[in-house]
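Most newcomers find our protein records easier to grasp once they have seen one. Read left to right, the backbone structure tokens trace the chain's path through space. Nothing more is needed to start thinking about how sequence determines fold. An example says more than a description, so a record of this kind follows:
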Amino acid sequence: MRAIVRPFIVVIERYYPDPFVFAIVLTFVVFIMALGLTDAGPIDALAAWGDGLKGLLTFIAQIALTLITAHALAHTDAVGAGLTRLGGLPKRAATAYGLVAFVAGVAALFAWSMGLVAGAIIARQVALQGAERGLRLHYPLLVASAYGGFIVWHMGYSSSAALFVATPGHALEEILGGIIPVSETIFAPWNIAIALVALGVVPVVCALMRPGEQEVIVLESSAGDLQPEEPATARPMSPAERIDAQRGLSAALGAALACYLVYWFWQRGLDLTLNIVNWSFLCLGLLLARSPVHYVKLVTGASATVGQIILQYPLYAGIMGVMMATGLVEVIAGWFTAIASAQTLGFWAFLSAGLINFFIPSGGGQWAVQGPIFIEAAQTLGTAPSRIVMAVAYGDQWTNMIQPFWTIPLLAIAGLHMRQIMGYTFVVLIVTFFIFGGGILLAGAG
């Protein structure tokens, strides 16, 4: 396996650009494709790009809050101690890589944001605890393992496409003649089986990719890691400082949030939106912090992780704007529907979704523009719509392994560059092609 992985690592480390440069190049590639493959003119494409730049502003704020609150929670005393113990579980290198991939995958099936954040934090803790025990672990592969586990997210509880078509009043309800319940998508036996296969195979692949001893890059402990703070110098506290140090204040706010979360889940069931995930992280952070001021310090320390998101995500919003407004998505999807049969439409939907994911790496956004095209083709050919929903989901999550959009929050926490992990995730991409592609073909037309 090392001999197979090595060429990918060498090529990517030498030639793969910075994610921001990748986003810039992708912007101009989409412009050229729109001008060459659609009827849009230069002004049309420019207007679509400019109008689209603001399209992810709400999401940018949400994912930034996810990173900050999760990072702060991980650095509270109780959670930090728990992560330290978890990081100390692996006794061998192979077990360490497999554990990180498996935990990240399970978390991603529950909620995609948890998969990214938990994977990055656990990878870091496993690396640190291993170093303390003399276990030499290759940190880039640990982080790649965390991202490899993320590849199953769109098959799980936060699947954008599946939840979209299961919601009454969705945009395709008239075409479909109703909703598609999650029992036919997320909880369909064939989807669960494919997810379990991926969740079992990816950790094994990650363990097999471990490099030779001379190539191992060990993570060194730094000030930002989970370490106990030095006690403050004893001195009389002013009245204001005594108020700032009152744990009851932050705990009371956390308790209020907890009450709201109980109400939310009581009313809606286990409805995990990104906002609710954020309020859950905030609630736990407030409850576990030593004081309001302590939590402010944790948040301040976490804020350094969001810079790349604020810089890059508007560019992807602009790319999405060009893809949607010029009809480029329809052109690309049409290439695949033209050669499909009832049995193979799901497979071609999977491949087209993987390609379109480079330009529209938002699961919900991708389904909104690609879904109608393939649903109409499914009705013409006689393919079950549920197969198409999950095929698009598989393609979306599949090429995330070589698309830097979702690595940005993970790498911000891990402190690595995309090119340090992509050689490994490219191998995960190849392996999971056979799992997802083969699985959707075996699922058939329904």
Q: What stands out?
A: The first helix runs from residue 2 to 15. The mean pLDDT is 89. Residues 2-219+304-443 form one domain.
